[in-house]
Amino acid sequence: MCFRFQKSVCLLLASLVACIACYSPLAFGEDPPTQVVQQSEWEARIEAALDAKGEWAFVDAPLSDVCAAIQEELGIDVVLDVKALEDFGIDSGTPITRSLGGISNRSFLNLLLSETELTYTKHLGALWITTPEKAEARLVTKVYPVGDLLGRDPTLVESQRDHSLLLQTIQANIAPDSWDNVGGPGAIEGIHNAIVVSHTYDIHEQVAELFTVYRDIIADSAAADAQQTLYMLGEDDSSTAIRQALDQPFTAEFKDESLKEVLKSISNKLRIPIVIDIHALEDFGIDSATPISAKFTETRLRFALERILSEMELTYIIRDEVLIITTPSKAEEALLIGLYPVRDLVEIGDDSSIEPRCVRCDFDSLISVIMSTIAPDTWGAVGGPSSIGTLLPVPTIVIAQTQDAHEEIVELLTNLRAAKQSESARTTANEEVDPTALIVRSYPVYAAYNAPDEIVKLIMRASEPGTWDEEAGTFVQGLGMAIVVKHNASGHRQVQKLLSQLGVWSPAGHGRKGFGGGAVPVVGGLQVTPSGERPSPGGFF
What is the distance between the alpha carbons of residues 426 and 420, in angstroms, rounded to a whole number? Predict the structure, then answer.
């Protein structure tokens, strides 16, 4: 392990020496940079071959013959790492049965190799079929320009760079057991406007896609009608088509037909590729010949599938451009990474003058709601495999979870947005009744500041002339560890905005350390809560 770690560090340093001088500060909102580390001709040729679509059919073909057929068909060198396979207990003559078409050669290869727990990498001008352990010994170092993802405050003379969120999110969500901070072989560091990653090719693909998807979120955030809730890594046209098919009405009747035949019928009828994870089912004690009897009339396909599979305690996932029938335990191993733009749900305050940056974000409250209500036993905080992280400058939550959990999270966020819009509409309607009505509210401030009178002075100095008028009945003053304000709705919004920017108050009433509670009515000179208590701070196979 020490050797691999030292090797990673050396690779990082060598790459940095060659690349540090290539970067200049990049402000938020500028066009994203291009890839600095260019692919060699042979790497680009392999990538093009993997991206192309093909038709494949193997029946009890030796693994060595399968590799030879792939080499001939794709026109690239394919090497079967026989020595590594033998050390892993796999024979090059292992029979392979797989028939599938209409998907990329990359996806087909992933499905093919997953049967034998093998993987592929690129090495010495060829595509190598090898073991995960051998692939980890051949780490590749790449430099990713990320200046546009780090955020900048244009009012500062020097650009501030903070790689921590990106680094933490990548390590927590992409192969979390594979990084050197937990004893794995991979290394990742941030420097200047770049992130340097030393890892296997498959991890590089995920890292690059994470950056691409986040850039899409940043670009979409500028649109006034941006409404997309979830951006899923690995999502392509094929995956989208499968999800759309799952929402189509399905009518059929099955009488003692095998699971395999039932799924084949569904695949042919709705033209979606379905794959049975035979090994997972066998390990679970289920035969694909298990008889199925069921009748469906204009039933959404996803409901029909769930009813068929639930009887055998099976489930499905969408991966590698196909719908895979597998066991719940296997589905939990195949976590999907989703990015959720949540500016409207976490941002506190509203300052359009510095729109690109999240002035004050309460991620914790939203994350707490998600983790406590969606698959609560699966999160890393309680020893589960799932993870959750955050990204800025455009407030985004990154989640590695099962497909079912992602669907529940989408529904939760949709409902939260609807509730917030309803409350906003109600508040607006109330304000329209009498926008000049004076309201008395108390704003508890963070105890560490211990100077509410000084905050009052700042509020009065920052306010427009005539804002505070004793004859009109408006005032602002300190009371214990709170600021008491009497003003109309517009005046309160100005005070809330300033307090949020100062970091001494949060309307959330809880969340990140450093915030006090939300504004509460004043009764008899004392702050009270609603309870009366004092507040505290295709094909088929």
Answer: 10
Quick check: 355 pLDDT over 50?
no
Q: How far is CA 474 from CA 238, 477, 488, in A?
A: 61, 10, 8
Q: Cβ neighbours of residue 293 under 8 Å, at least 6 residues apart?
A: 254, 255, 256, 257
Render the burial of 343-364: b for 16+ CB within 10 Å, e for the rest.
bebbbbbeeeeeebbbbbbbbb
> How would you list the strands of the sheet with 315-319, edge to edge?
274-276, 322-326, 315-319
pLDDT of residue 370: 96
Domains 41-136 and 435-527 share a fold: no
Among residues 313, 288, 322, which one has the least CA distance to residue 99? 322
Radius of gyration for the alpha carbons in the chain, expressed in angstroms and rounded: 28
Amino acid found at 161: R
Residue in 239, 284, 292 with CA at minimum distance from that of residue 264: 292
Beta bridge partners of 54: 103
| Top-confidence residue, 506 or 539 | 506
Tell me the mean pLDDT in the region 29-45. Answer: 67
Size of the chain, expressed as the number of residues it contains: 541
The CA-atom distances, in angstroms, between 200 and each of 51, 133, 337, 353 are 18, 10, 18, 42
Residue 522 has pLDDT above 80, yes or no: no
Confidence of residue 375 (pLDDT cuts 50, 70, 90): very high
Architecture of domain 435-527 in CATH? 2-Layer Sandwich (3.30)
- Amino acid, res. 414: T
Note the pLDDT tens digit of each residue in 54-82.
999 999 999 999 999 999 999 999 999 99
* Residue type at position 365: S
Q: What are the structural domain ranges in the chain?
A: 41-136, 435-527
The model's confidence at residue 498, banded by pLDDT at 50, 70 and 90, is confident
Note the pTM of the prediction, 2 decimals: 0.72
- The dotted CATH code for 41-136 is 3.55.50.30
- Give every strand in the sheet of 119-123, ordered side by side: 78-80, 126-130, 119-123
Query: Which residue spans within 246-342 are E strands per DSSP?
Result: 249-258, 274-276, 291-300, 315-319, 322-326, 336-341
Instruction: Give Cα separations from 359 to 203, 424, 499 (angstroms).
Output: 33, 20, 12
Helix (H) / strand (E) containing 91: none
Closest CA relative to residue 189, chosen from 198, 178, 176, 202: 198
What 3-state class would DSSP assign to 191?
A: strand
538, HSE (Cβ side, Cα atoms, 13 Å): 29
Give the sign of the dihedral formed by CA 18, CA 24, CA 25, CA 27: negative
Is the pLDDT score of 214 beyond 90? yes
Give the C-alpha distances (Å, rounded to integers) separating 283 from 88, 132, 420. 20, 21, 47
